[in-house]
Amino acid sequence: LAKLTDTEGILPENTTLLASRIGEDSTIYKTAAEKMAKISDRFQVFGVELMQADGSSVTPEKAVTIGLRVNYTYNRNEVEAYLLGYDGSLTKLSVSNGGSYVNISTDKTGTIIICVPGIAFVMPVWGYILISVGAVVLIAAAIVVTIVLVKKKKKKAKAA
Length: 160
Description:
Blueprint: E1 2-5, E2 16-21, H1 27-36, E3 42-51, E4 64-68, E5 80-84, E6 90-98, E7 101-106, E8 110-116, H2 125-159
Antiparallel strand pairs: 1-4, 2-3, 3-8, 4-7, 5-6, 5-8, 6-7
């Protein structure tokens, strides 16, 4: 699910990465969904913490790389990552393609949202109604024009 890369030795020895997917029934997920409503409708939410062996949390002084394994259908070159703050704010994080992982460079932990930007367009019901009515009007107009032209042609043929 996740991997930690600390090439510069920023973290204390024996630091462990704890990561989990946050499910749709969670209040954190619901908050994330509200925040992502205008950014993306394809996203996953992760809880990410750095811990020492004694159970105390670790906050890196500089950015470390956290790799998260996201939905395999997400294009790793197009994804974005956001840190969901405790106050509900979103902070965009630096991401890179890590093969089967999305690599995130960050000095913060907490709730991370990985998304494919973009929202699918959903046609409202009234849109379908307008299209149907428009099609019926066009068909009726074509029939009326055809009838008028045929009558004019018949009148000319009788007059001649």
